[in-house]
Write a structure and sequence with these properties.
Number of strands of chain A: 4
Radius of gyration of chain B: 14 Å
Order of helices and strands of chain A: HEHEEHEHH
CATH topology of chain A: Histidine-containing Protein, Chain: A
Strand order of the largest sheet of chain A: 1-4-2-3
CATH architecture of chain A: 2-Layer Sandwich
Helix content of chain B: 40-55%
Order of helices and strands of chain B: EHHEEEEEHHH
Number of domains of chain A: 1
Strand content of chain A: 15-25%
Largest interface: A-B, 19 and 19 residues
Number of helices of chain B: 5
Helix content of chain A: 25-40%
CATH superfamily of chain B: Mannitol-specific EII, Chain A
Number of helices of chain A: 5
CATH class of chain A: Alpha Beta
Distance between the termini of chain A: 55 Å
Oligomer: heterodimer
Chain lengths: 108, 158
């Protein structure tokens, strides 16, 4: 892509999320994450400080082995970057992958 | 975590006898049982639990690999069996392709972090095409064990 209008329309969006479900980012949540990420056109990079991985690859996301409490930085780059970041943030922090959080388990 | 920390080398099956998903899972769990890595009398229960998990969502992550797994009180620590099939198994994988390498993982229920660490270590290697190829080409249990030990010691080989 030539530098110019194409480059200008490339939105970059970033956020940090914290894993809240007790079991962490195991395979099922990792698949939900990747499914959500793949609904968007933008590139998505997730990092835990040690590794930077492709947010659209199940192998790479699983490699983060993010336990409950881990903070992950999500960076999206592309036209729909903002929408992608919002959707992923909601999945991790509001829905916590439809799984119990440590607080829920105490209540049981 | 390294492969040697959780892979049971006595439960490596270089050519699985079973030709279907359920049979493969039963064969691998049974190999762990024979190697005395499961609590006594838990073999069938664990097999059924892995199948139940597999029916919820396929662990066939694509590129010829599947990672059936379950958290179960029938193990004290994370343990894995490795099996290979030259004919290819239908795991309803994400990429709809047959599976040639299966790593079956059983983790204790009360330690989710340790389960994640074992998964991390499996995926860290599986994402390398070279590792998947070496694994698929290994034809004996000894070759598979050597491969796992080698990448443990020298990850830069990949």
């Amino acid at each position: 892509m030539a530098a110019g209008e194409g480059a200008l329309s490339r939105t970059v969006c970033e956020t940090t999320v914290q894993i809240r479900n007790a079991d962490g980012l195991h395979m099922r949540p990792a698949m939900q994450f990747v499914d959500t990420a793949n609904q968007f056109e933008c590139d998505i990079i997730v990092s835990n400080g040690e590794n930077r991985v492709d947010g659209k690859s199940i192998m790479q996301i699983s490699m983060l082995a993010a336990t409950c409490g881990t903070r992950l930085k999500i960076k999206a780059e592309g036209q729909d970057a903002e929408k992608a970041i919002n959707a992923l943030q909601e999945l991790v922090e509001q829905k916590h992958f439809d799984e119990p959080t440590p607080g829920d388990q105490k209540k049981l | 975590m390294k492969f040697v920390d959780f892979v049971c080398f006595e439960a490596i099956i270089p050519e699985l006898r079973a030709k279907d998903r359920d049979g493969v899972i039963a064969e691998l769990v049974s190999a762990l049982d024979k190697a005395k890595r499961l609590k006594r009398g838990k073999c069938d229960e664990i097999t059924n639990a892995v199948l139940k998990r597999e029916n919820e969502a396929s662990t066939g992550i694509g590129k010829g690999v599947a990672l059936p797994h379950v958290k179960h009180h029938g193990v004290k620590d994370v343990v894995a069996a490795v099996g290979k099939s030259s004919v290819g198994i239908d795991f309803s994988a994400l990429d709809k392709q047959p599976v040639y390498s299966v790593i079956l993982l059983v983790s204790p229920v009360d330690n989710p972090d340790r389960h994640l660490q074992a998964m991390e270590s499996i995926f860290r290697h599986l994402q390398h095409e070279k590792f998947r190829k070496f694994l698929r080409q290994s034809s004996t249990a000894a070759q598979i064990e050597d491969l796992l030990r080698e990448v443990d010691e020298n990850p830069s080989l990949l």
